[in-house]
Amino acid sequence: YIFYVLYANLDEYNPKETYDVKLTKLDEWVLSRLHSTTKKVRTALDDYQFTNAAREIAALVDEVSNWYVRRSRNRFWESGMNAEKAAAYETLHEVLVTISKLIAPFTPFVAEDIHLNLEGSSVHLADYPVVN
Fold first, then answer.
1. Residues 6+ apart with CB under 8 A from 45
2. Is there a contact between 102 and 38 (Cβ–Cβ < 8 Å)?
3. What percentage of residues in the chain have a pLDDT greater than 70?
4. How many domains does the chain have?
5. Does 32 fall in a domain?
6. pLDDT over threshold 90, residue 80
7. Residues above pLDDT 90, as percent of the chain
8. 87 assigned to some structural domain
9. For a disulfide at 68, which of 12, 30, 122, 124, Cβ 3.0-4.6 Å?
10. 109-122, pLDDT tens digit by residue?
């Protein structure tokens, strides 16, 4: 989260603007992982398996920070805003916003702080993530 906020502010990235993006395999992987985790968390919560839901979220956060961000750093460090860099920002923004929604039942104050900073609105007024 801090990595994203730091570099997005440096690059004056605005998630509300439209950018030409070129998703890489890494972007597609993390979005796929996000969707599968969302589905598992919803299923676990529906079955009152709160510990399993929390473990799924923790595993996702670990993979995002230790795989996606580490392997995407060079894209964030490039000068200017090209299609790959914009895709990295958009992907990481989507992942962080969704994670803030997923963690809201477990850590409401942390989720609120993250969501307010990224979206400008309360996480508790947002819909819980669903997978189509």
1. 53, 105
2. yes
3. 100
4. 1
5. yes
6. no
7. 88
8. yes
9. 30
10. 999 999 999 999 99
In a domain? residue 130: no
**Cα distance between residue 60 and residue 33, in whole Å:** 7
Supply the angle between the helices 70-77 and 83-103 in degrees, to the nearest 10: 130
Is 54 part of a structural domain of the chain? yes
**Amino acid found at 68:** Y
The answer for 47, left when phi > 0, alpha when psi is -120 to 50, beta otherwise, is alpha
What CATH number is given to the structural domain containing 73? 1.10.730.10
Q: Which domain holds residue 47?
A: 2-14+22-125
The 3-state DSSP class for residue 11 equals coil
Summarize pLDDT for 2-19 with one digit per residue, the tens: 999 999 999 999 998 888
Residue 58: count of CB within 10 angstroms of its CB:
12
